[in-house]
Amino acid sequence: MAEALHLKTKETIEGLSDEQVLDLLRLKWIAPLCASLRAMPKDIIGQLEKAVQALANKYAVTYLELDRQIQESEAALAGMMDGLTGGEFDMKGLGELRALLKGEKHG
Fold first, then answer.
1. Cβ proximity of 33 and 26 under 8 Å
2. Residue 41 confidence (pLDDT)
């Protein structure tokens, strides 16, 4: 049956007129190519839109907001350090770290 199908297909293809051959070529190659070319700008714009949105999401938190969050965290950590106890050198080290976190300058 496969051989018969192959022979019938070959006979049909060889019997096509030039107009039928051109129609088949249009349907098989030209129409899909044109559809792909028409869709290309939309696809490229879609990819660009996704990339821009990803950048907007990545930088949604501003530097000023990050700086404020860091300062709040440093102040909270410095406050928690007040409850720590230790030896003389440990407490001096904690004092320096606390001063650094609070933005104080020691020399």
1. no
2. 95
Determine contact, residues 98/83, Cβ cutoff 8 Å.
no
DSSP for 35-97, written as a single string = HHHHHHHHHHHHHHHHHHHHHHHHT-S-HHHHHHHHHHHHHHHHHHHTT----HHHHHHHHHH
- Diameter over CA atoms, the chain: 103
pLDDT at residue 77, rounded to an integer: 85
Q: What Å distances lie between residue 66 and 6, 8, 62, 104, CA to CA?
A: 71, 74, 6, 20
- Tell me which DSSP letter residue 106 carries: -
Rounded Cα distance, 94 and 80, in Å? 11
Residue 14 DSSP one-character state: H
Closest listed residue to residue 78, CA positions, set 62, 60, 101: 101
The pLDDT averaged over each successive group of 10 residues in the chain (107 residues) is 92 92 94 95 96 93 90 85 84 85 66
